[in-house]
Design brief:
EAL domain-containing protein; binds ligand C2E; alpha/beta; eight-stranded mixed β-barrel; binds magnesium ion; 285 residues; two-stranded antiparallel sheet; globular
Length: 285
Protein backbone atom coordinates (compact mmCIF):
# COMPACT_ATOMS: atom_id res chain seq x y z
CA UNK A 1 0.00 0.00 0.00
CA UNK A 2 2.88 2.31 0.87
CA UNK A 3 4.39 1.65 -2.54
CA UNK A 4 1.11 2.42 -4.21
CA UNK A 5 0.87 5.59 -2.20
CA UNK A 6 4.36 6.61 -3.21
CA UNK A 7 3.55 6.07 -6.84
CA UNK A 8 0.42 8.16 -6.53
CA UNK A 9 2.44 10.94 -4.98
CA UNK A 10 5.01 10.82 -7.79
CA UNK A 11 2.15 10.97 -10.28
CA UNK A 12 0.74 14.03 -8.52
CA UNK A 13 4.16 15.66 -8.51
CA UNK A 14 4.52 14.99 -12.25
CA UNK A 15 1.13 16.56 -12.92
CA UNK A 16 2.02 19.64 -10.93
CA UNK A 17 5.34 19.94 -12.78
CA UNK A 18 3.64 19.52 -16.12
CA UNK A 19 1.06 22.18 -15.26
CA UNK A 20 3.77 24.61 -14.15
CA UNK A 21 5.72 23.98 -17.36
CA UNK A 22 2.61 24.46 -19.48
CA UNK A 23 1.89 27.71 -17.66
CA UNK A 24 5.43 28.92 -18.33
CA UNK A 25 5.29 27.97 -21.99
CA UNK A 26 1.94 29.76 -22.39
CA UNK A 27 3.23 32.83 -20.55
CA UNK A 28 6.37 32.99 -22.68
CA UNK A 29 4.32 32.72 -25.88
CA UNK A 30 1.96 35.49 -24.72
CA UNK A 31 4.87 37.69 -23.67
CA UNK A 32 6.64 37.27 -27.03
CA UNK A 33 3.43 37.98 -28.92
CA UNK A 34 2.82 41.12 -26.88
CA UNK A 35 6.34 42.45 -27.39
CA UNK A 36 6.95 41.34 -31.00
CA UNK A 37 3.58 42.30 -32.41
CA UNK A 38 3.66 45.59 -30.55
CA UNK A 39 0.46 44.52 -28.82
CA UNK A 40 1.49 46.33 -25.69
CA UNK A 41 -2.13 46.65 -24.57
CA UNK A 42 -1.55 43.08 -23.39
CA UNK A 43 1.07 44.48 -21.01
CA UNK A 44 -0.81 47.07 -18.93
CA UNK A 45 1.12 48.96 -16.29
CA UNK A 46 -0.68 49.42 -12.98
CA UNK A 47 0.20 51.78 -10.15
CA UNK A 48 0.18 51.11 -6.43
CA UNK A 49 0.03 54.13 -4.11
CA UNK A 50 2.86 54.88 -1.68
CA UNK A 51 1.64 56.96 1.25
CA UNK A 52 3.06 59.15 3.97
CA UNK A 53 2.38 57.42 7.31
CA UNK A 54 1.96 60.79 9.01
CA UNK A 55 -0.49 62.44 6.64
CA UNK A 56 -1.78 59.32 4.83
CA UNK A 57 -1.46 61.31 1.59
CA UNK A 58 -0.21 59.67 -1.59
CA UNK A 59 3.44 60.65 -2.09
CA UNK A 60 4.23 58.36 -5.01
CA UNK A 61 3.33 55.17 -6.84
CA UNK A 62 5.08 52.00 -7.93
CA UNK A 63 4.57 50.89 -11.53
CA UNK A 64 3.77 47.16 -11.69
CA UNK A 65 3.37 45.38 -15.01
CA UNK A 66 0.70 42.78 -15.80
CA UNK A 67 0.37 40.29 -18.67
CA UNK A 68 -2.99 39.70 -20.28
CA UNK A 69 -3.02 36.19 -21.77
CA UNK A 70 -6.17 34.39 -22.98
CA UNK A 71 -8.34 36.86 -21.12
CA UNK A 72 -6.55 36.31 -17.83
CA UNK A 73 -3.99 38.38 -15.98
CA UNK A 74 -0.69 36.61 -15.37
CA UNK A 75 1.31 37.71 -12.33
CA UNK A 76 4.76 39.25 -12.85
CA UNK A 77 5.92 36.74 -10.26
CA UNK A 78 5.50 34.19 -13.08
CA UNK A 79 6.59 36.01 -16.21
CA UNK A 80 9.27 38.44 -14.98
CA UNK A 81 11.70 35.64 -13.96
CA UNK A 82 10.96 34.00 -17.30
CA UNK A 83 11.59 37.29 -19.12
CA UNK A 84 14.83 37.61 -17.19
CA UNK A 85 15.98 34.14 -18.35
CA UNK A 86 15.06 34.66 -22.00
CA UNK A 87 16.28 38.25 -22.30
CA UNK A 88 12.73 39.45 -23.04
CA UNK A 89 13.05 41.55 -19.90
CA UNK A 90 15.00 44.12 -21.92
CA UNK A 91 12.15 45.10 -24.30
CA UNK A 92 9.65 44.49 -21.48
CA UNK A 93 11.49 46.88 -19.19
CA UNK A 94 11.66 49.49 -21.93
CA UNK A 95 7.89 49.25 -22.42
CA UNK A 96 7.23 49.63 -18.68
CA UNK A 97 9.61 52.59 -18.38
CA UNK A 98 8.08 54.36 -21.38
CA UNK A 99 4.51 53.76 -20.16
CA UNK A 100 5.31 54.81 -16.60
CA UNK A 101 7.10 57.97 -17.76
CA UNK A 102 4.20 58.95 -20.03
CA UNK A 103 1.81 58.54 -17.10
CA UNK A 104 4.10 60.38 -14.67
CA UNK A 105 4.45 63.30 -17.10
CA UNK A 106 0.68 63.57 -17.38
CA UNK A 107 0.38 63.84 -13.58
CA UNK A 108 1.43 67.16 -12.07
CA UNK A 109 3.88 66.83 -9.22
CA UNK A 110 1.31 67.71 -6.57
CA UNK A 111 -1.04 64.95 -7.65
CA UNK A 112 1.77 62.44 -7.98
CA UNK A 113 5.21 63.49 -6.74
CA UNK A 114 7.02 60.45 -8.15
CA UNK A 115 6.70 57.08 -9.83
CA UNK A 116 9.05 54.19 -9.19
CA UNK A 117 9.86 51.56 -11.81
CA UNK A 118 11.41 48.13 -11.19
CA UNK A 119 14.62 47.38 -13.07
CA UNK A 120 15.73 43.77 -13.30
CA UNK A 121 19.39 42.77 -12.87
CA UNK A 122 19.74 41.72 -16.50
CA UNK A 123 18.24 44.98 -17.73
CA UNK A 124 20.65 46.98 -15.60
CA UNK A 125 23.57 44.91 -16.89
CA UNK A 126 22.76 45.73 -20.55
CA UNK A 127 25.26 48.16 -22.06
CA UNK A 128 22.35 50.04 -23.64
CA UNK A 129 20.50 50.71 -20.40
CA UNK A 130 21.71 54.24 -19.60
CA UNK A 131 21.43 55.46 -23.23
CA UNK A 132 17.88 54.03 -23.33
CA UNK A 133 16.98 55.76 -20.05
CA UNK A 134 18.46 59.05 -21.29
CA UNK A 135 16.45 58.83 -24.53
CA UNK A 136 13.18 57.98 -22.77
CA UNK A 137 13.62 60.86 -20.31
CA UNK A 138 14.16 63.25 -23.22
CA UNK A 139 11.24 61.84 -25.18
CA UNK A 140 8.64 62.16 -22.39
CA UNK A 141 9.64 65.72 -21.58
CA UNK A 142 9.66 65.25 -17.79
CA UNK A 143 11.12 68.48 -16.43
CA UNK A 144 12.23 67.06 -13.08
CA UNK A 145 14.04 63.71 -13.45
CA UNK A 146 14.05 63.17 -9.68
CA UNK A 147 10.33 62.34 -10.06
CA UNK A 148 11.51 59.04 -11.50
CA UNK A 149 12.78 56.39 -9.08
CA UNK A 150 14.36 53.15 -10.24
CA UNK A 151 14.01 50.14 -7.93
CA UNK A 152 16.89 47.69 -7.97
CA UNK A 153 17.55 44.49 -6.06
CA UNK A 154 20.62 43.04 -4.44
CA UNK A 155 20.92 40.28 -7.06
CA UNK A 156 22.06 43.03 -9.49
CA UNK A 157 25.34 42.98 -7.62
CA UNK A 158 26.13 39.32 -8.18
CA UNK A 159 28.58 38.12 -10.83
CA UNK A 160 27.52 40.10 -13.87
CA UNK A 161 30.95 41.25 -14.94
CA UNK A 162 29.96 44.89 -15.14
CA UNK A 163 31.00 47.80 -13.00
CA UNK A 164 27.68 48.26 -11.28
CA UNK A 165 28.76 51.34 -9.32
CA UNK A 166 29.75 53.11 -12.53
CA UNK A 167 26.34 52.32 -14.00
CA UNK A 168 24.51 53.52 -10.90
CA UNK A 169 26.57 56.72 -10.84
CA UNK A 170 25.58 57.34 -14.47
CA UNK A 171 21.91 56.94 -13.53
CA UNK A 172 22.29 59.29 -10.58
CA UNK A 173 24.03 61.81 -12.85
CA UNK A 174 20.80 62.02 -14.86
CA UNK A 175 19.03 63.18 -11.69
CA UNK A 176 17.01 59.96 -11.39
CA UNK A 177 16.68 58.52 -7.88
CA UNK A 178 17.45 54.95 -6.79
CA UNK A 179 15.61 52.66 -4.37
CA UNK A 180 16.84 49.40 -2.86
CA UNK A 181 13.92 46.98 -3.33
CA UNK A 182 13.08 44.06 -1.01
CA UNK A 183 15.68 45.33 1.44
CA UNK A 184 16.84 42.87 4.09
CA UNK A 185 16.13 39.65 2.22
CA UNK A 186 19.48 39.26 0.42
CA UNK A 187 22.75 37.73 1.53
CA UNK A 188 24.68 40.90 2.19
CA UNK A 189 22.19 43.68 2.78
CA UNK A 190 24.63 45.90 4.65
CA UNK A 191 27.25 45.71 1.90
CA UNK A 192 24.50 46.53 -0.56
CA UNK A 193 23.36 49.48 1.56
CA UNK A 194 26.91 50.77 1.72
CA UNK A 195 27.83 50.31 -1.93
CA UNK A 196 24.82 51.84 -3.68
CA UNK A 197 24.13 55.58 -3.93
CA UNK A 198 20.49 54.99 -3.03
CA UNK A 199 17.91 57.54 -1.93
CA UNK A 200 15.26 55.12 -0.73
CA UNK A 201 15.26 51.81 1.13
CA UNK A 202 12.21 49.63 0.59
CA UNK A 203 11.91 47.39 3.61
CA UNK A 204 10.71 43.97 2.55
CA UNK A 205 7.21 42.82 3.39
CA UNK A 206 8.58 39.92 5.50
CA UNK A 207 9.62 42.44 8.20
CA UNK A 208 6.27 44.21 8.08
CA UNK A 209 3.65 41.44 8.19
CA UNK A 210 2.65 40.92 11.83
CA UNK A 211 4.94 43.69 13.02
CA UNK A 212 2.50 44.85 15.67
CA UNK A 213 2.83 41.48 17.49
CA UNK A 214 6.53 40.87 16.94
CA UNK A 215 9.26 42.53 19.02
CA UNK A 216 12.05 41.24 16.79
CA UNK A 217 10.55 42.74 13.66
CA UNK A 218 10.04 46.02 15.50
CA UNK A 219 13.73 45.97 16.49
CA UNK A 220 14.82 45.35 12.89
CA UNK A 221 12.64 48.19 11.64
CA UNK A 222 14.03 50.58 14.24
CA UNK A 223 17.59 49.62 13.28
CA UNK A 224 16.97 50.01 9.54
CA UNK A 225 15.31 53.40 10.09
CA UNK A 226 18.27 54.53 12.15
CA UNK A 227 20.81 53.28 9.59
CA UNK A 228 18.96 54.76 6.65
CA UNK A 229 18.63 58.14 8.33
CA UNK A 230 22.34 58.18 9.18
CA UNK A 231 23.07 57.52 5.50
CA UNK A 232 20.63 60.13 4.20
CA UNK A 233 18.14 57.65 2.84
CA UNK A 234 14.42 57.46 3.41
CA UNK A 235 12.45 54.28 4.13
CA UNK A 236 9.29 52.83 2.59
CA UNK A 237 7.77 49.79 4.29
CA UNK A 238 6.31 47.25 1.83
CA UNK A 239 3.30 44.99 2.17
CA UNK A 240 1.22 46.73 4.82
CA UNK A 241 -2.05 44.80 4.99
CA UNK A 242 -3.27 45.62 8.52
CA UNK A 243 -4.15 48.84 10.33
CA UNK A 244 -2.19 47.61 13.36
CA UNK A 245 1.00 47.24 11.31
CA UNK A 246 0.53 50.70 9.79
CA UNK A 247 0.15 52.09 13.30
CA UNK A 248 3.25 50.26 14.58
CA UNK A 249 5.27 51.55 11.62
CA UNK A 250 4.14 55.09 12.27
CA UNK A 251 4.97 54.76 15.97
CA UNK A 252 8.45 53.51 15.07
CA UNK A 253 8.96 56.64 12.98
CA UNK A 254 8.77 55.06 9.54
CA UNK A 255 7.99 57.85 7.07
CA UNK A 256 6.20 55.97 4.30
CA UNK A 257 4.51 52.73 3.37
CA UNK A 258 2.81 50.77 0.63
CA UNK A 259 0.40 47.85 0.81
CA UNK A 260 -3.10 46.56 0.36
CA UNK A 261 -4.23 48.41 3.48
CA UNK A 262 -3.60 51.71 1.65
CA UNK A 263 -4.38 50.57 -1.87
CA UNK A 264 -3.87 47.76 -4.36
CA UNK A 265 -2.13 48.28 -7.69
CA UNK A 266 -4.67 50.04 -9.94
CA UNK A 267 -4.99 51.34 -13.47
CA UNK A 268 -3.98 55.01 -13.52
CA UNK A 269 -7.55 56.43 -13.76
CA UNK A 270 -8.64 54.33 -10.78
CA UNK A 271 -5.67 55.60 -8.77
CA UNK A 272 -6.64 59.15 -9.77
CA UNK A 273 -10.11 58.56 -8.37
CA UNK A 274 -8.63 57.22 -5.14
CA UNK A 275 -6.38 60.27 -4.76
CA UNK A 276 -9.09 62.85 -5.39
CA UNK A 277 -11.78 61.18 -3.27
CA UNK A 278 -10.74 62.41 0.22
CA UNK A 279 -10.20 65.96 -1.05
CA UNK A 280 -13.56 66.19 -2.78
CA UNK A 281 -15.79 68.68 -1.03
CA UNK A 282 -19.41 67.63 -0.56
CA UNK A 283 -21.73 69.06 -3.17
CA UNK A 284 -23.22 72.38 -2.16
CA UNK A 285 -26.62 73.35 -3.49
P1 LIG B 1 8.10 44.18 -5.87
O1 LIG B 1 8.84 45.14 -6.71
O2 LIG B 1 8.62 43.94 -4.50
O3 LIG B 1 6.60 44.72 -5.85
C1 LIG B 1 5.74 44.59 -4.77
C2 LIG B 1 4.81 43.42 -4.96
O4 LIG B 1 4.06 43.22 -3.77
C3 LIG B 1 3.77 43.62 -6.05
O5 LIG B 1 3.46 42.35 -6.60
C4 LIG B 1 2.58 44.15 -5.26
O6 LIG B 1 1.35 43.96 -5.93
C5 LIG B 1 2.68 43.29 -4.03
N1 LIG B 1 2.02 43.91 -2.88
C6 LIG B 1 1.80 45.20 -2.63
N2 LIG B 1 1.20 45.38 -1.46
C7 LIG B 1 1.02 44.17 -0.92
C8 LIG B 1 0.44 43.68 0.30
O7 LIG B 1 -0.04 44.43 1.13
N3 LIG B 1 0.46 42.34 0.50
C9 LIG B 1 0.98 41.47 -0.41
N4 LIG B 1 0.94 40.17 -0.13
N5 LIG B 1 1.54 41.89 -1.57
C10 LIG B 1 1.56 43.21 -1.82
P2 LIG B 1 3.37 42.11 -8.16
O8 LIG B 1 2.75 43.29 -8.83
O9 LIG B 1 2.75 40.77 -8.35
O10 LIG B 1 4.88 42.07 -8.59
C11 LIG B 1 5.73 41.06 -8.10
C12 LIG B 1 7.17 41.35 -8.43
O11 LIG B 1 7.37 41.32 -9.85
C13 LIG B 1 7.63 42.74 -8.00
O12 LIG B 1 7.97 42.74 -6.64
C14 LIG B 1 8.81 42.95 -8.92
O13 LIG B 1 9.94 42.31 -8.41
C15 LIG B 1 8.36 42.24 -10.18
N6 LIG B 1 7.86 43.23 -11.14
C16 LIG B 1 6.63 43.77 -11.26
N7 LIG B 1 6.57 44.66 -12.28
C17 LIG B 1 7.83 44.67 -12.82
C18 LIG B 1 8.43 45.38 -13.93
O14 LIG B 1 7.81 46.21 -14.61
N8 LIG B 1 9.75 45.10 -14.18
C19 LIG B 1 10.47 44.21 -13.44
N9 LIG B 1 11.77 44.01 -13.74
N10 LIG B 1 9.93 43.54 -12.41
C20 LIG B 1 8.63 43.77 -12.10
MG1 LIG C 1 9.50 46.98 -6.50
MG1 LIG D 1 9.47 45.47 -3.42
MG1 LIG E 1 9.17 42.85 -1.72
Amino acid sequence: AAKQNGRARVQLFDDTMREATQQRVAAERALRAALDGDRVDSLPVWFQPIVSLQTRQVIGAEALVRLRADGELVSPGVFVPLAEETGLVVPLGEHVLRTALAQLTSWDDETMPYVSVNVSPRQLAEAGFVPMLTAELARCGLSDPSRLVLEITETSMLGRGIDLSERLDAIKALGVRLALDDFGTGYSSLTWLQSVPADIVKLDRSFVVGLAQDQDKAAIITAVLWLARAMNMTVIAEGVEEAADAQALEAAGCPAAQGWYFGRPLEAPALDALISRPRQAPAVS
